[in-house]
# Entry
Amino acid sequence: MFSGDDIVYLKGVGPSRAKVLAAELGIHTVGDLLEYFPFRHIDRSQQSTIATLNEDSGYVVLRGTVSNMQTASIGKYRERLTVDFSDGTGSLQLVWFQGTKWVRDKLKPNVKYIIMGRPTVFNGQWQMTHPELETDMASDSSRQPYLPVYSTTEKMKSSGLGTRAMARLTETLVGCIAGIEETLPQEVLSQYHLLSRHEALKAIHYPDSLAQLDAARTRLKFEELFFMQLDYQYSRTVRQQHSEGRIFGHVGNLFNSFYNEHLPFPLTGAQKRVIREVREDMRSGHQMNRLLQGDVGSGKTLVALMCMLIALDNGSQAALMAPTEILATQHYNTFLRMLEGMDIGVELLIGSVRAAEKKKMKARIASGETKIVIGTHALIEDDVLFADLGLVVIDEQHRFGVEQRSKLWNKSVPPPHVLVMTATPIPRTLAMTVYGDLDCSVIDELPPGRHPVRTFHRTEPRRPLVFHFLKQQIDAGRQVYIVYPLIHESEKLDIRDLEDGLEMVQSYFPRPQYATSMVHGQLSAEEKDFEMRRFKEGKTHIMVATTVIEVGVDVPNATVMVIENAERFGLSQLHQLRGRVGRGAEQSYCILMTKDNLSGSSLERIRTMCSTTDGFLIAEADLRLRGPGDMQGLQQSGMLDLKLASIVDDEPLVAATRNTVQDILAADPTLSRFPLLQRHIEHSKNKMLWGKIS
Ligand code: ADP
Ligand code: MG
# Structure
């Protein structure tokens, strides 16, 4: 058989199983099945005996005979089937709740069976529910030393496609598959001593030895990572070669007079470095596509503003897009304040601007009178036309979909330079992989004079002390946040949590002496804005909120962040929330309230938060605890497509593939010597178009 053949023609499949395979696992061809990898193997030589079972045995293989079959009905239509299984060292009860008829017909006394599964103790006796079962034929065990174990779904099991059935299919398949094409260049195979694709695909299902299994996995992981690198790096090469960029050749009056006369404080070294990097990009003749990572409070806004001035100095307009109206408005005010006394048209374009005013604004943007536009999604509407948009800055980039971002990209020809900013740091290893298509800048230095936020973990019994502390802070003129988690499944419940919380807070902090704001997702934009503004202007002391305040809000006078049910937040979210305080000159505090006995990764997260304020360390911990799939902003990045390799655990392979691809592209940018790789690129071109500005 060949890998493109329809799975229905594989011996043992047939139309109905083919349907199940397609629906449950997306397997349509024999090639798809070949690439459905087992998640583990059972070593047949390591057979267990019932006498030696213990709580930690896990998945075991036993060999023995059955007796004493009994059925009992449960409810009207269901029954429970139990069978005694013994192997000469002891006995164990097998239990079925489903497919009982089929099992009853199949099991025979005095026949040797192999059973596989996870034994548990029930009423003092060993038991195994829904074991995998097959007749033990002598030839069977001599054939394959390792049995593959596949994950299967309930639907598959009830169609007779449990892991053993799957294993029989793959066994048939590896016996008859021909002509599996090699995908990696020969020189790469020899350089890294990799198995051929054909050998690897056979061995990952049915290895002769653990060493061979390991080699197979390495080869297939290498391939996965190699092609991911190739996609990213190739599109970057193409961009650098072909994408025409505006040339912003000089730094002019606006930049210089801002730098010399308006800068409110000296730039940090990191800010200077990033501005230099952006300047180099913008005069290179290629379109800039740069990611700026900087921890919360590191001063990205100022960097954005100064880069925008360079665009203006070269006769272009610049735009800044933020994910919320609150943020856009805040940026707008910052810009007005910083640019005071300079004659620069700055405009705020957000949804809540009245239609008549919006129309005039758009006219000014189209005529080029407005130089800097700050806004929300409203910026990307089709009727917002620029005279000459030269630079786009996107704040908190993970909040925008790829499609939205690429719309801004298309607002001018040649396309504007793009700077995307994020305060959700991505560990270096990951950034180089995921953002292979982007150049990265990092602000790794906070402005001087900041006191790191002090973080404490507290539980319910100590709430009075926590509130007492809040009172002291408020009485000293500060403000505080109290944040509740938001769980999407039940927004109603969240609001109730929040309202209960509010009630408790207000009874402890009575009006009129203390004023409280409340913000949550069910308020309208205006209501939210109103509450936020009151807090920002110092008219309220306490902000009780769900995580809607998480991003970017800047209230320097707020010094305490209390996070309720902190164990329910992810690390990067906790870090973002904590970043809302510690923005002024005063010492700030973050208090993580949790239930009593935390364990496992919740405890680990809380401990991490209490031990460091370094966003990169936190991101590394987050990655370790949750894996890259759950990390904010990576959902659309394609990272989730990895079947075998792990960005975290296979770092050496990640580095090896990155370097190999780099070398190949450096020596042969068009891949003329590598027709196979060219074919792959052709194939994934569509996908890459979307990934262009991530
Ligand atoms: P973020 O990177 O989180 O967007 P901001 O741009 O909001 O951070 O900056 C946080 C605060 O730091 C702002 O109040 C800003 O005015 C201030 N800031 C920025 N750069 C400097 C600097 N070089 N020195 C002192 N304060 C700075
Ligand atoms: Mg910001």
Observations:
- Residues 265, 267-268, 271, 294, 296-302, 423, 447, 554, 583 surround adenosine-5'-diphosphate (ligand 1) (CB under 6 Å).
- The chain has a mean pLDDT of 86.
- The longest strand covers residues 60-74.
